[in-house]
Write a structure and sequence with these properties.
The chain is α/β, with parallel strands linked by helices and 323 residues long.
Amino acid sequence: MAAARTVLAVLCGQRRPPGMQAIEALAEVRYTDATGLPDALHGADALFVWDFLSSAVCEAWPHADRLRWIHIASAGVDRLLFPELAHSSVVVTNSRGVFDRPIAEYVLGLILGIAKDLATTLALQREGTWRHRETRRIDTQDVLVVGTGSIGRATGRLLMAAGLTVTAVGRTARQHDPDFSAVHSAEELARLLPTADYVVVAAPLTEMTRGMFDAQAFARMQRSAWLINVGRGAIVDEADLLSALGAGEIGGAALDVFDEEPLPADHPLWTLPNVIVSPHMSGDFVGWLDALVALFGVNFARWLADERLLNEVDKRAGFVPTG
């Protein structure tokens, strides 16, 4: 008797993942939206969460009667790790690595734009105003990167190469690190915040990092310092951030992620002069969708061959352990 064919469910949003032909040749692929996910999960061996902003997996979980593996098309897994999944035997992998360099480049671009005051230059150009100004050099400035995963490390490497001094905060301190001038434990964050010209949030959202940047954190930052968040919106208390910006406690904020996405049109962050808002796009480069499918394809082949999967998530910790 022939072995049963592998069944793969793919949770899609408005569009299907591109370039799935090779995978379709290896398995029965069931494309579905959130409404149809319960039926698609019934009898499925694996799930590819292409619509990584969806919460449908939790709601459809009782129908996952044969599921052994979930892969998500994002680096963050906070939307996916509901308690029933976290305590199950289902393996979870993510798309770590696809976004590392693009996000690092985005952070460097933000720092250069802030230091060189490009916003004022563009505003004066629109007005037709010639106004000479001085700008800052970045090789005299200090960056504190919060998060020592692959995105934080790629950011550290690029910023160090550009001449910035980069210190990091991670789970554990290290005396020597190839990507940062120093790595300190999370317990030292309060002591380090006053030393940074830029604070870059690149950590995953966990119970430890949720609300990490609150009124107390902003009060410790330099009045000229900028917060850059490319991690998750909930790591920053937005109400406290608005208060800190209004009181001049920090220099500004460049935000790519928010508590609510899309950011509501009437949100005050849109109109503050010292805030840069981008629509969760810091890692999205030309060809990123193909790169996500290519990574899944590699992992799918490994899974069919019963080989070790790439990017296996520690479901209790909420991220892929470094090393």
